[in-house]
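One thing: could you explain this record?
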Amino acid sequence: MTTTAPTSRRTRAAKFVDHIAHAIATDPAAHRALASGLGPWPNQQPPSPMHQYVAPWLPPDLHPRRQRAYYTVAALMSSANRSGTGSRTSIGTALGHASTHMSPATTKHQLNRLVRPNPNGPYQDLRGAIRLTDNAGVPLDWARLLAELDSWYFDGPRTCTTWQQDYFRTIARHERSDDHD
């Protein structure tokens, strides 16, 4: 699968997500290659099979820490059943919605794992969060997640705050709607 990398910064994340979603849906080899990124990454390097599908879409001269966002989102997409690209649903909002389908303590624990201070970012705990939201049938905006992870080393604390606020606002909305039922 040969493609031309997009150049517009504003649309890069959405185009990348569309490309990966199409590859996963139509090419079993691509699905397997991207799923190889779900396991441990020796020396913090993505598995070789992923490069064919991710590397053409990386912006030129992108720092390896920022490249990790693209490889991680591609791997996570290979494990999920639902996406909501364009829905603007953050991982915090998605976990808040998932709490109506499972123990809120479980989703809150997962959120706390995502936002705890970690010099390597939230990557280690994202798979568990995605599994919870996916099992609850809650779509996630992959393009938004990619943009948030891409800027993690510049805006990580702000993103953590946003995820927490989104989570608790969603919980509060659910509680208010339960009170009116």
About this structure: The radius of gyration is 16 Å. The chain has two domains: 9-79, 91-180. DSSP finds nine helices and no strands in the chain. The mean pLDDT is 87.
